[in-house]
Amino acid sequence: MAEIRSLEELQTPDSTALIFTPFGLGGAMPPERSAEFLQRLVADCVLAPDVAEGSRREFDRLQRLFPYGLLDYDVFTVVDDRALLVMEQALRERFIQWCAGAVTFEDANGLESPRSEDVRTYDDVLAAVKKLGRRSRRGPQQQPSPHWQLKVGSTLIDFNGMLAGLRTWARAAGLLRGQRTRGIEHAMSNLRNAVAHPTGYHRTMPVETARTLHDLAELINQLWGHPTPGGRLYPAPVERDIVVMAWNDEGSVHIAQADTLRDDTAADGYLYLLIRSVSRPGSRYEDAYWAEFDARFETTQFPAEYLWGPGSRSDALAWLDAEQPKGDTVDYVDRVFMLREHNGQLYPPMHPEVAAGLTGEEQRGTWHTVRADFPEHAFAHVRGLNGSPDAHSRTGECRNCPAHHLGSGSHEQALRAAEDVVGVVTPRRPPAVRIPGTIFWPHRF
């Protein structure tokens, strides 16, 4: 028989929860401080207003329950497990909104199934999938049974109504984004499956549960078209400012806001370069590779655009005053890169516009078009193509790295593959500018 505890005992803080503090594991915090700390851990998980009511109410319940782990440590595990199940619920509810009352399947011969109309709940979707499965099994023996695929725009995908099929649909419909996040989504699905089909006892720490709730909030918001500012999984576009890079013959390199050029105390003997960049000194987006900026190649972590230079400080100021360039916002996930392979050398990634502006001689070799979040991911993927046959995929999403291979071949073929994704590419040819003395980009590997 279970132990019956008094109300006072039920309200007694769990000593295990008290040792989790804002500075990590340590001495037990006072219960009042711990209650505030736990609530603040998930207070900034906010869903967009147009999220389906079912997903919203489930998430709100988990967010409210989370701080009760202070009274019973096992609440953190219950909340974490339930959050992984809510992920599938959100996908199902978004699918119902997306299909707008009807789903269409198509077989390998291009024959469309009768449209499944009046799809009001996800049970209707599962019934349609099950019905097509029965039709496939009843096919005449002299003919292969049709393999039905869900029609998503002009794309056909395998879809059985389960979590993996929902993830594939959300990607095909453009609702989920980011190549790095594909692997995280797969890991979250595996965790969800472990919760749905448990094989043993487990416990989850509050910091892990808080991260699961944050990730779930990002995924739900992204499904409804709302990326998260500063997000871990589905970040919103980031702001770029006009910045100045300066270097001298002694190897000193600096980066700062462009307005610092107006400082009369600026040292002489420097060359100056103006770029549009995410990297702001001291910000969370400060680029670890800013000093490797190259006007021709994508060598920085976040997108950086050449504007002017190099030249003297006075000339840089004159250009700023005349042109008055403005900052902008840029999305740094799912970028399209083109990479040249020639005479045994793989060159760093290029923006398609820059690749389109190359001379005939510079276009020679084999070109690869890759979609990735960061240039080093595209570079590592193409370099891995020459490894074992199953190391990296030459078509579609790569199974072994956060990249999507769009095409390979001549410069023209690779550029066409890029245009299929980004639209018309306007050639531009920036000057060959790279900070002297910096190590060539591929050293990071």
Write a brief caption for the model.
By secondary structure, this protein is of the alpha+beta class.
Q: What's the SSE blueprint?
A:
Layout: H1 7-10, H2 15-18, E1 20-21, E2 24-25, H3 31-42, H4 53-65, H5 74-99, E3 105-106, H6 122-137, E4 149-152, E5 155-157, H7 163-172, H8 180-196, H9 206-223, E6 238-247, E7 253-257, E8 271-277, E9 304-311, H10 313-323, E10 328-330, E11 335-342, E12 345-346, H11 352-356, E13 366-372, H12 375-384, E14 396-397, E15 403-409, H13 411-422
Antiparallel strand pairs: 1-2, 3-4, 4-5, 6-7, 6-8, 6-10, 8-9, 11-12, 11-13, 13-15, 14-15
Provide a descriptive summary of the structure in words.
- Helices cover 36% and strands 16% of the residues.
- The protein has 13 helices and 15 strands.
- It is α+β, with helices and mostly antiparallel strands and 445 residues long.
- The strands form four sheets. Strands 6, 7, 8, 9 and 10 form a five-stranded antiparallel sheet that branches. A five-stranded antiparallel sheet has the order 12-11-13-15-14.
- The chain has helices at residues 7-10, 15-18, 31-42, 53-65, 74-99, 122-137, 163-172, 180-196, 206-223, 313-323, 352-356, 375-384, 411-422, and strands spanning 20-21, 24-25, 105-106, 149-152, 155-157, 238-247, 253-257, 271-277, 304-311, 328-330, 335-342, 345-346, 366-372, 396-397, 403-409.
- A hairpin with a 2-residue loop joins strand 11 (335-342) and strand 12 (345-346).
- Helix 5 (74-99) crosses helix 7 and helix 5 (74-99) packs parallel to helix 9 (206-223).
- It is globular.
